[in-house]
UniProtKB/TrEMBL annotation:
GO molecular function: DNA binding; DNA-directed RNA polymerase activity
GO CC, one annotated term: RNA polymerase I complex
Every RNA polymerase Rpb5 N-terminal domain range: 5-105
Name of this protein: DNA-directed RNA polymerases I, II, and III subunit RPABC1
One Pfam family recorded for the sequence: RNA_pol_Rpb5_N
Organism: Ascodesmis nigricans
Taxonomic superkingdom: Eukaryota
InterPro entries: Arch_Rpo5/euc_Rpb5 (IPR014381), RNA_pol_Rpb5_N (IPR005571), RNA_pol_Rpb5_N_sf (IPR036710), RNA_pol_subH/Rpb5_C (IPR000783), RNA_pol_subH/Rpb5_CS (IPR020608), RPB5-like_sf (IPR035913)
Keywords: DNA-directed RNA polymerase, Nucleus, Transcription
Entry's family note: Belongs to the archaeal Rpo5/eukaryotic RPB5 RNA polymerase subunit family.
Length: 224
């Protein structure tokens, strides 16, 4: 069994990163909600033995006005391609179809459009099939705790990635007289693409530092 202090520190780091990730996607979350010291995290979310109670870490978030603009449809009157998200930490060593069904139920019960489940270990194939079966209704994402111990977007070697709105994407293609298929690509399972929750067809602007020009931008099309 893991040392309580080390486990609490590990979960605290993952909990902070997942909040930062949701915030960076454009959801309404204030830093006061998650930018807390480890001691306060222990007081709020750990039991008498100092072990984190993952079941108490669930939270939901709603799209900000800017996020709704970024995800706005090009079709007049159509709703934006985003909605509220439910985030939950699972404490089970194995995550199978039972946990998948329970998670989907809670996401639906809360009237969320998306669900993000943080697990200790990779879910079973049956679990992933269960999630795939509801992909037309819900957007389900899976992250492992170990993948969230560090916010990769804060690393000095990772350039800034900015999701373009559909209108910005349209103008980009028109400006350079390009077809979508002519853009360089970023895979959906790329770590930064996963962090931002990119979907097939999304375009990101990547801003890098340059010794000669200061900064320069490139663009990538997300592929599924």
């Amino acid at each position: 069994m893991a040392d309580p202090d080390r486990e609490a520190s590990r979960v605290w780091r993952a909990w902070k990163t997942v909040h930062e990730m949701v915030q960076d996607r454009g959801y309404e979350i204030s830093e006061e909600e998650f930018n807390i010291p480890l001691d306060e995290f222990r007081q709020r979310f750990c039991d008498s033995e100092g072990r984190p109670q993952r079941s108490s870490l669930a939270f939901k978030a709603y799209p900000s006005a800017q996020m709704q603009i970024t995800h706005a449809s090009l079709k007049p009157g159509a709703p934006p391609d985003c909605g509220p998200i439910w985030v939950e930490f699972n404490s089970d060593i194995s995550v199978g179809i039972k946990q998948a069904k329970a998670f989907v139920f809670r996401v639906k019960e809360a009237n969320m459009a998306s669900g993000l489940l943080v697990c200790l270990n990779p879910p079973s194939s049956a679990c992933m099939k269960a999630f795939a079966g509801v992909e037309r209704e819900l957007n389900i994402e899976i992250f492992l705790e170990e993948q969230l111990l560090v916010n990769i977007t804060k690393h000095e070697l990772v350039p800034k990635h900015i999701l373009l709105s559909k209108e910005e994407k349209k103008r980009l293609l028109q400006r350079y007289r390009l077809k979508e298929s002519q853009l360089p690509r970023i895979q959906k399972d790329d770590p930064v693409a996963r962090y931002l929750g990119l979907k097939k067809g999304n375009v990101v602007k990547i801003v890098r530092k340059s010794e000669t020009s200061g900064r320069y931008a490139s663009y990538r099309l997300c592929m599924g």
